[in-house]
Amino acid sequence: MLLTAFVVGLFILKQSQSSSMPYAILMAGIGALAGTATELFSPSELDTFTVPAMITTVLLFL
User: pLDDT tens per residue, the chain (62 residues)?
Assistant: First the structure.
C-alpha cells in the first residue's frame, strides 16, 4: 500500500500542479504514510471511507 500510494500520489501531484519535484515527493510521502497508517488501524469495512478522508485531511493541514 505504501509504495502504490506514494507512486500514484507523486504522479497525480506532478500532473495536476506545477510544484517542484522535492515538494511533490514530500507531499506524496506524507500522504502515503497517512493512508498506510489509517489502513492499518481502521476496521476493514470502513477503510474505503477512512483512508481517503485521512489523506485529504492531513494534506489540507500542510
Answer: 999 999 999 999 888 877 789 999 999 999 999 999 999 998 888 888 999 999 999 999 98
CA distance 41 to 24: 26
CB 6 within 8 A of CB 34: no
Give the residue carrying C-alpha cell 493541514: 61
At residue 45, φ and ψ (nearest 5 deg) are: -80, -15
What's the pTM value of the predicted model, to 2 decimals?
Answer: 0.87
Q: Cell for 56? A: 485529504
Rounded to whole angstroms, the maximal C-alpha distance in the chain is 37
The number of residues making up the chain comes to 62
